[in-house]
What does this fold into?
Amino acid sequence: MVTCERWVAMVRAAAGQVRASQELLSNLDSHGGDGDHGTTMVRAMNCIEQAVAQDRSSSMPDLLRAIGWAVMGVDGGATGPLFGTFFMSMSDAASGDAALDARGLAAAFAAGLAGVQKRTRARVGDKTMLDALVPAVEAAQAAADCGGSVEDVLRSAFEAARAGAEGTSALQARFGRAKNIGEKSIGQPDAGATSVSLLFKGFLEGVTSHA
Amino acid sequence: MAMKKFINDPDHLVNELLAGFVLANANKVALTGNNLVVRAQPKPANKVAVVTLGGSGHEPALSGFVGEGMLDISVPGEIFAAPGPPRVFEALKLANRDAGALLVVLNHEGDVMTAGIAMEMAEKEGLNVKQVLTHEDISAPSRQDPRDRRGLVGCFPVIKVAGAAAEQGRPLDECLAIAERMERNMATLAVAVTGATHPSTGSVIAEVPEADMIVGMGQHGEAGGGQQPLKSADETAAIMIDALCEDLGAKAGDRLLVMINGVGSTTLMEQYLVLNGVKKALDAKGIGLARAIAGEFLTVQEMGGFQMFAAKMDDELLALWDAPCNTPALVVK
It folds into this structure.
């Protein structure tokens, strides 16, 4: 089961993953973007860690809302609203649950994705974070539907997110600022998709280290 | 890193630029809350408040439009990046009044998302806020979908006329209608001759080959196509005003407001030359140049080039454009 304590361990591990890849994320973003994605994501992770350190509530919706709100507070263009919405929408879906089982976790991820998709016109194949997030959520649901454990769900999600992020190398950006460099955007993975992959890598690590 | 700029720690860049901005304009603006830029003397609460948000690094935009006759509050974000929804919501709460507030949003992914979330929260809170989206860049590859048109320097005239209407005590619906009318009747096209660097990351945000210019480049170095050999001021002016007139459907007898907005290293001298070229091109078409303005209003660091703005004006929009204002970026007596 994913309790509040486990969520805290998961987001802390995710923060560690993002921090370790700050330079990579900024380098990927400098190709068509502003080169600030790594800095923005690290600021977002710092805000998350502050939020979970201050959060005294034992309610999962409150915890996820606090995390989402903290991410939203980062002044970093679309990054804060998108990643913040992911957590806020999970919070709406987790209403009343003290802990999430594998199915509940997969359902929460699906709700998070649905929230993100309401905010952006980007679709799979546009070379954005959705190219990692959509397959991750689908893989999480498939694992849960097959009776997998929380760890199975997170491992499936991470592997799909990583494959999705790596797959963006071959794509031409059709969304965001990178769209404007056209074919030159091909050859490197999308920074946002890479961040999603790192988040799920951290979630998996957090759950396994906090079993 | 080829960057040659006077900065300190990039993490403190926005805080430091805002502090200096307020020092330089102490009789007009002040900082409050979480880096919200407000008027030094607040407008009476029985008048509509005008609020905007947007990335930093474009000085004097957008906070330079705060002051009598224009904005009440600006929410500056990080360099070239929109602020998050919590600070925009904070601004909307601060602006809250019976007369209501108008939120001016430039069409960029982050700005629109942040504004959307802040507006949802304002609605939940029962705040009386309306939003106007500026998206007047005509270089977007697919002109069919207005959502692909970016918001460039046109936010400035929209804020000017809406702010003047608010100052006159007009109700929110009228202020919104005026802002939307200005927005519908305006168009902007940008041209770049040299690139720029992101001041905190050092990333090159635009590259222009030595002998070329790029027509259609946005304010973050987004290429909009149109790379061609550099032309004279008159030729460039003619190419650009033709495209703007065509987009606006401007015809003989129409009266235009034209703005040449230098984006960084193009000199005022060049801007005047281009404006003069615009006048000649308009004269040839029989289109009137009702008002003209040149200067730096929305910049892109050291980028070379300018944004050419044109709008079809009516008597009311002209009167609102001419109305007094007292802001860091523009003073009309």
Remarks:
- Chain B has two domains: 10-185, 186-312.
- Residues 234 and 277 of chain B are 4 Å apart (CA to CA).
- Chain B has a mean pLDDT of 94.
- Chain B touches chain A through 34 residues (CB under 8 Å).
